[in-house]
Design a protein that fits this description.
Elements (H helix, E strand, L loop, with lengths): L3 E4 L2 E4 L4 E7 L8 E6 L6 E6 L5 E3 L7 E5 L5 E6 L8 E9 L2 E4 L3 E6 L1
Parallel strand pairs: 2-11
Antiparallel strand pairs: 1-3, 3-8, 4-5, 4-9, 5-6, 7-8, 9-10, 9-11
Length: 114
């Protein structure tokens, strides 16, 4: 069954770093993949996207601090997060498209304390 699984979340102090991973099941290739985050009570927002044409884009709030990448096997995507701020706190999800539909992971919690 097609699925995504995030890992790497945790609790850090402001200024710290975390690296999130998104692993795809065997039936999926991460040609295009995006990372989103959601704060309780707010809409889910995109923070980074790696498109199928290899173009990359970031939300203004994270540009220069976060880096999205994927491995050459198109099975794992990463989100390197540096200089973390309390406002980066939230649940982080990865998303891709497979079999004509959007596919989301279950999310991983990131908590940044001041």
């Amino acid at each position: 069954q097609a699925h995504l699984m995030e890992s790497g979340g945790g609790a850090v102090q402001a200024g710290g770093s975390l690296r999130l991973s998104c692993t795809a099941s065997s039936s999926i290739s991460l040609n295009g993949v995006a990372w989103y985050r959601q704060v309780s009570g707010k809409q889910r927002e995109m923070v980074a996207i790696f498109r199928g044409d290899r173009s990359i884009d970031y939300a203004d709030a994270v540009r220069g601090r976060f880096t999205i990448s994927r491995d050459k096997f198109l099975k794992t995507a990463y989100l390197q997060m540096n200089d973390l701020k309390p406002e980066d706190t939230g649940v982080y999800y990865c998303k891709t498209s497979a079999f004509g539909r959007e596919l989301w992971g279950q999310g991983t919690q990131v908590t940044v304390s001041s």
